[in-house]
What does this fold into?
Amino acid sequence: MSTAGVRRGGTALTLIGLAGLIGLFWLSFFWVSTEVNQGVAQRIFYVHVPAAWTSFMAIGISALCSGVYLWLRDERLDRAALAAAEGGFVFATIVLVTGPLWGKIAWGTYWTWEPRLTLTLLLWFIFLGYFMVRGSTEDPEKGKRFAAVVALVGAIDIPFIHVSVLWFRSLHPQPVVAKAEGPTLPQDMLTTLLVGVLVFTVLFFGLFLMRYALEGLRAELQLRERRTSS
Amino acid sequence: MSTYLRQLAAIVRKDLVLEFRSKDRLVAMGAFAVLAAVLFNFSLDNASVRPRDVLAGLVWMTLVFGGLLGVGRTFHLEAEDDAFRGLMTSPAPKDAVYLAKVVVNFVLVYGLSVLALGVFSLFLAVDVGANLPGTLLVLALGALGFVALSTLFAAVSTGTTMGETLLPVLVFPLLLPMVVFGAGATGRLIAGRPFAEVAGNVRVLGAFAVAAVAAGAVLFRFVVEE
Amino acid sequence: MALEARDLVREYGSVVAVDGIDLKLAPGEALTVFGPNGAGKSTLLGMLGGAMHPTRGTVSIGGVAIDPSVTSWRHRVGILSHRGFLYARLTAAENLRFYADLFGLDDPEARVAQGLGRVGLTDRARTEARHLSHGMKQRLSLARALLHDPEIVLLDEPYTGLDPSAAAVLRNVLGELKDGARTVVVVTHNLREGLAMATRVAIQLRGRFVWEGAANDLDAVAFERHYHETIEVAA
Amino acid sequence: MRSFQLRALGPARALGAAVFAAVLTPSVLVAQASGLGQQSLRPYWHVFAAYTLVILLVAAWAFSIGRRLKDVENRLSD
It folds into this structure.
């Protein structure tokens, strides 16, 4: 697909995603019932969990593209890995700012070593490392390779981190006031959550495509500048 | 295969000889372990904290910080006179170079962690004799996982303009599993609990080390290519 | 062809260091590439020796395209740079022994002794490289580059900072290489030494060969004038 | 011409949606607060902040992509 086509697709998906976000807000404010134990604060759940889902999907996409990039050295794969990492970074930031707001009500403290929150914090730092490595090499091609290695090792390490934060928590019980989610989530809450996941995924892919198109245009620009200079 | 082992052994031997002749990293890491023990002793309030309870955590933090201090300089050894270029244009496979560096760094970091265990036990008057073989095994697996990751990223950070300052940002988030399971197991072993209780931890530590070494061996060639 | 490059390009971001170089060298030929600093000579040599990956184009040895990430062909190439690739705290013999092991050479001890003898360093075998003079170090790294008897020899500014006696040893050893079986590429800005060993000559400017010719019918004085004119026009 | 139209859409819409949601959220809170008056108001403040931050972060990313796209396209059309 041409860069302009990707851009158009990205813009369209982003608009759908933004409309969906308004819809999600409507659902979670007017439609879904209030959770009995935690009350209104539990509504943060409908943006917090989808954002977490999106950021983990992002590191998956980024690592996958990075791996194939190292193999085939197709610039488009590196652009996709970069776009996904940037999206993952934004959505991980959402998780990290909404988590404490919820936690303050649910657990009485802004930060707890809740497994998902801890995992996301480390994921956020993995993304940070990704961008720092990318930006600190003299030869951009080298930066791309280094960043791909960071994304790959990060993705491989995440299951281990997950296991360890769960294990750590089982050793040190947290002051849990109420369980946020369980297998028996009422139907309307589940529906709202699934809508949230869908909306965030669409939004992610919309912006992902725009970011990808941006990187394609930058490459085009660089190629042109090189041609005029030689 | 025998050529592979010969190349690997040559790099290991060369690095160990250089290490013992210059003693740069040996002295720096050894001094780090002892001085960390001194500072930790004065940073703890003995009235409210029992050294026995925090010893494992302190040993693991010393392994991580002191280890990074040494491992970060892995490729500086090769930088003088451009020797790394010579190594890279030789027929030695890149994974052999990586594995050799892992072996050498493991010797250093494991030595550091065992030294830290001894010095801390002496300074903080904690008996670590119970389950000592188990403790040493846990430290060995932890040191291996640590070295596998940090050697790979030492190569990355050496290739950037930021150098070693970048290393903690890249490596610390990835080390959480090692610290959680390693420090947890060490703490219980020092407390005199049976080894069977930490067998699960040891398995995860082992899996982590194997995954880290495998990932490093595969990915190293992409880091050092020019 | 012993050594062949086809449309070789190397970019560093927006900088083009080597911009489409073709060359073909038969066994016995020695090419000297002249050029000012920043012409991309070292990058060219790095790609010919497989130290750097080309952005585009291929390098072939003996008609087979080489893959820099594979090591099976590396024993056929020897590289000498003005940086010695030596470890300061290893002795002369240990430095050579290390390379003998990396290259998987049979009977390494004999090879090391032979290599040291070739550059007149036998009595310095047990001296650490940091205690050797600059010229001795350069001789030692020449022995290192030729230890595995490569058929292709790449030299990057070999005469930089050499004292006269070391330069004489270098000239002798390089003379021995003119046995008709080897291919030599030298990059340098030292006109006199570069011409002495060449069978073919090229001038590289901004990543391209702007002039190429045979060395035997070259008038050294006229060539020198031509070279300086070329790089002044460029500057 | 077409690309100019597209350029106007992305970031502008995103920002519009952000403003819209920022206005919408407090009104919703007020509407619901009347029904659950016996509970502390603090949770509302937190929910409001969380939802606003979601909008702001997404909009900031969209806006930054849009600005960078515009910048590159201007330089490409020169």
Notes: The longest helix of chain B spans residues 94-123. Chain B has a mean pLDDT of 91.
